[in-house]
Amino acid sequence: MKNVEFPAHFLDSLKREPGFEAQNFVEAHQNPHAITSIRLNPFKKSASKTGKQVPWCKEGLYLDTRPSFTFDPLFHAGAYYVQEASSMFIDHIIKNIKQNDEPIRVLDLCAAPGGKSTLLNSALNSTDLLVANEIIKTRVPILTDNLNRWGTANVIVTNNDPKDFSRLKGFFDIILVDAPCSGSGMFRKDPAAMNEWSEANVNLCHQRQERILADIYPALKEDGYLIYSTCSYSHQENEDILDWLCDEFEMESINIPINKEWGIVESRSVKQQAWGYRFYPGQVEGEGLFAACLKKTDSSGELPFYKNTAQQKLAVKEIDQVKAYINEPDDYYYFKVNDDWLAIGREHKESLNTLHRHLYIKKSGVRIGKLVGKDLIPDHELALSTIINKVAILQIELNYEQAIQYLRRDNIDINIQEKGWSLMTFEGLALGWAKLLPNRINNYYPKEIRILSNAPTI
Ligand SMILES: C[S@@+](CC[C@H](N)C(=O)[O-])C[C@H]1O[C@@H](n2cnc3c(N)ncnc32)[C@H](O)[C@@H]1O
């Protein structure tokens, strides 16, 4: 048993919260055994990851032990995302509200590092668009890295303040606000977070949450869904926010059916009786989470779409050069950003143009590569993407040691006769590019994301 000292007034404040069981909660925090869970990438099937399934998410798995993810090539290939299990409940909400294959646009407003963006992306079709936004510039690279690993061509990453989205009236069918919060739900995983907790901070978070929601409301379509989540237990940041949303805006609460055995507490807000879903360690196999879903019942007006492209299109000859690399190449719209050549699902072209007018775009679709002389230098994003035509491209399967050498950007201990651009793969999944020359291999793994640390001693 670990000795855990919660912040002053914290446990007292929880006693009033719906479904809270103090003894279970305290014992769960004293238990030194940490729960580890991952979520598999449905677009990159890997047979070697197994475990007990997370009850509310088909692709979620509990692992018996916590491996070193840094030293697992499948992690770098995007075969899975390391995510605590409660957060995967957002998948259950999406499955309940998305009931047909009509193309939709989804916004993940507070997206970095990308746990819920990769989850949303898994639940969407390629004809749906995901916009993953992060306000803090320095947190955008981790978000784009994680989405690059996930590999799909229906994602746009933006770096904007929530209020910038108010211009995109009625643009999104679903908006997820995984709000910055006082963070009590993460105390077990990150005990240092306890030092930051105070009732005053809970109130500040509440005010910021209201501001973010008011800013984003116009961007939601009539009959669109708002999913609101926090990793806080405080009703000020949860049920009170639902009451405020229903009071201030035209919103109705949506009941999400849950299985009693999951241990999730269904709560109702005091005034509007809006449904919320609470996750308490000790009652669920996961960390603290609150989630709720509401439907917008009025309209903020319609946004004019911009048909004309803001980007420079690829010339026909250039597209021919690209086509060899792409599976179903006619499904994509090809364009340039500075020297880079990119591809995004054809159906997302107008959305891209419209977003380009209003937002600061940091990633759109898949970066294919850039032209140097007459040669196309393929990009790392293309290697990890699900749109690459693997059949037409040379692939070298690496064993574990070689894969780690490659991911470290070291020389790879391997004898190869082939020449030219090749995908380096591990268990059939691409890790990145190498250029095979007569006497050596040029390792093109990006240096910014290479493995720097030493292998863990077991
Ligand atoms: C709970 S975290 C998001 C975690 C992420 N959704 C995931 O699942 O990986 C909240 C995010 O909100 C961002 N944030 C902080 N202040 C914000 C604000 N005023 N408006 C919008 N986002 C904000 C933080 O930078 C952080 O990335």
TrEMBL record:
Belongs to the class I-like SAM-binding methyltransferase superfamily. RsmB/NOP family. Transmembrane segments: none annotated. Residues 1-297 form the SAM-dependent MTase RsmB/NOP-type domain. S-adenosyl-L-methionine binds at residues 110-116, 134, 161, 178. It comes from Mucilaginibacter gynuensis. Keywords: Cytoplasm, Methyltransferase, RNA-binding, S-adenosyl-L-methionine, Transferase. The active site is at residue 231. This is rRNA cytosine-C5-methyltransferase. InterPro entries: Methyltr_RsmF_N, MeTrfase_RsmB-F_NOP2_cat, MeTrfase_RsmB-F_NOP2_dom, Nol1_Nop2_Fmu_2, RCMT, SAM-dependent_MTases_sf. It comes from the Bacteria.
